[in-house]
UniProtKB/TrEMBL annotation:
The keyword Flavoprotein applies. Residues 6-118 form the Acyl-CoA dehydrogenase/oxidase N-terminal domain. PANTHER family: ACYL-COA DEHYDROGENASE, ACYL-COA DEHYDROGENASE FADE28. This is Acyl-CoA dehydrogenase-like protein. Belongs to the acyl-CoA dehydrogenase family. It holds the Pfam family Acyl-CoA_dh_1. InterPro entries: Acyl-CoA_Oxase/DH_mid-dom, Acyl-CoA_Oxase/DH_mid-dom_sf, AcylCo_DH-like_C, AcylCo_DH/oxidase_C, AcylCoA_DH/ox_N, AcylCoA_DH/ox_N_sf, AcylCoA_DH/oxidase_NM_dom_sf. GO terms for molecular function: acyl-CoA dehydrogenase activity; flavin adenine dinucleotide binding. Keywords: FAD, Flavoprotein, Oxidoreductase, Plasmid. Residues 124-196 form the Acyl-CoA oxidase/dehydrogenase middle domain. Its cofactor is FAD. Residues 218-367 form the Acyl-CoA dehydrogenase/oxidase C-terminal domain. Gene3D superfamilies: Acyl-CoA dehydrogenase/oxidase, N-terminal domain, Butyryl-CoA Dehydrogenase, subunit A, domain 2, Butyryl-CoA Dehydrogenase, subunit A, domain 3.
Amino acid sequence: MDFTYSEEQRMLADSLRRFVESEYSFEKRRRNAREHGSFDRGIWSSLAEMGVLGLAVPADHGGFGHGPASQVVVQRELGRALVQEPVIPSGVIATAILAHHAPAALQAEWLPAIASGDKIFTLAYLEPDSRYRPEVARTTARKAGADGYVLNGRKSVVWHGAAADTYIVSAMLDGALALFLVSRDAKGLAVTGYPTMDRLSGAGLQLADVPATLVTTNGLEALELGLDHGVAAQCAAAAGAIERLIEITAEYLGTRKQFGKPLASFQALQHRVADMLLQKELALSMAYVAAQGLDATDAAERRRKVSAAKVVTAKAARFAGQQAVQLHGGMGMTDELEVGDYFKALTMVDVLLGDTDLHLERYGEAMAA
């Protein structure tokens, strides 16, 4: 896989950089989180127009059909600005599941809607006692009529669940895991949204005889594929966030003075910034590894590379966030600077889409396989 930017990728990256610098300032991001639940319909439409939401959607369904390498380019730029809209849940995870596992009729119905931004999808697979494990589900499905199904159960920590129009829900059907589509306005569905520590939003779902459409009975394979695509995108976004956080920190050290000298002139602080740079390069390299893993034909190889990338990137993200807060001194502990937003977002890298313990276990199982 060639990770040198093509001319098209360079133009896309430059366009996104200009867009987020003008439309995603610190003040606008805070206001978006405070007043709109971290979702701005205008920003979402702009992302769709730029091709971000349809990047991985096949061309015959209104998208661009780009592979994982282009996703690294896009997510790196979005991560630099901490873009809050549900690009990864809808444009990456849901797209991967539907494009690879949904029947042709469902693909024709829903993939164009994802690419255009008309519909927002997210994945509801976690439950209160599942501990990140996709195969664990107490939610059940049963047939209702000739082609319909109804779901009963509870889903928790649904990423961007409050903004979604449609949920991909995992449930047990005849003793095996299956995936279903559930509309936000479905009868019997109760959605409870809440803010999260990184200024995003989550939701809990309560399902009581909720009508649903079957996506696939091969639920575990489809779910793991979608999550792996999400993790790869998350790693690239984290690398972009670390990159921007280093720039913010370097600027602060260059302007803040102590003993009549800029903080940037002190060698000990220079070394700490250098350590942050090393972690950024490590995170970006692992984002490439994860993207490469998505092209693997062997599922064990894909899981090995993606889980390795998740573990290393989460560690790098945590280190960079902590160092940035410390290098800002007392100001780093306040809510006045955007360093705190980056710290919170980078801290959440470890717990979103499976924590370090889970991915270390997956990595070990993939190595054994």
